[in-house]
Design brief:
It is built from five helices and nine strands. With about 230 residues, the protein is an alpha/beta fold. The strands form four sheets. The chain has a three-stranded parallel β-sheet, with no helix packed on it.
């Protein structure tokens, strides 16, 4: 149900502070910095660079997207203009990072007995967490039995009883007896790996903030788990 496209980022910029500490300078700093700035640190100089990085043209500088590449390219150009020597790969200011962006592919859908379910109102994918919530790029089930697995935080069916089935779970309960929308806090690690699919009946109690996390793409280093909402 969840599709996880892998988008490798060619490189991530090395921090200027690290470069300044570990890479020797090629020579004395230029008498003047890039146009519009000065060799010495001034409020106007800092403001100029801050405005460049914060400009809408950088599109939020989100990792794995074009705006982030633009921002890191700008930083590298500034470091080069300052006379710092690159300490990255291939004589650059960069190092390769196995970055991935996870999210739903356009057209992702879920239907039951031929009836489509509305994304974000009748179903939503959970965040990808390797080793905890196993996912496949696509899922098509026909005739898979559906079984009630219990309530998270309480007794659940065995992995053997869940194997090959669609397991429905209820969210855990708070001390007040009300459903706890933060169902991942009671997730039994390593369970239900053999199930055809797992569904948690919690959309009616999940907060708008958590829904926003589920809607948005998540980025990170390949092999690392995404943080919980």
């Amino acid at each position: 149900m969840t599709v996880i496209p892998t988008i490798p980022r060619a490189a991530a910029v090395l921090a200027a502070a690290v470069l300044a500490a570990c890479a020797p300078a090629a020579g004395p700093a230029p008498a003047a910095g890039p146009r519009g700035t000065e060799a010495r640190i001034t409020p106007a100089d800092l403001s100029l660079r801050l405005h460049v990085l914060a400009d809408d043209s950088m599109m939020g500088r989100r990792a794995g997207h074009r705006g982030n590449a633009m921002a890191t390219d700008y930083i590298a150009a500034e470091l080069r203009a300052m006379g710092l020597e690159p300490a990255g790969e291939g004589g650059t200011f960069f190092q390769t990072v196995p970055l991935v962006v996870r999210g739903l592919q356009p057209g992702a859908a879920l239907s039951v007995d031929g009836q489509p379910l509305a994304l974000w109102t009748e179903w939503a994918p959970m965040s990808h967490r390797p080793g905890t919530w196993p996912f496949t790029p696509s899922l098509r089930l026909q005739g898979a039995p559906v079984v009630f697995g219990g309530r998270l935080g309480q007794a659940l069916i065995s992995d053997a009883d869940a194997r090959g089935k669609v397991v429905l779970l209820l969210p855990p309960l708070q001390a007040s007896g009300q459903p706890n929308a933060r169902f991942w806090t009671e997730w039994p690690g390593g369970r239900f790996g053999g199930a055809a699919a797992v569904a948690i009946v919690a959309l009616d109690v999940v907060s708008p903030a958590v829904m926003n996390v589920l809607r948005n793409e998540s980025g990170g280093v390949a092999g690392e788990a995404a943080p919980p909402p």
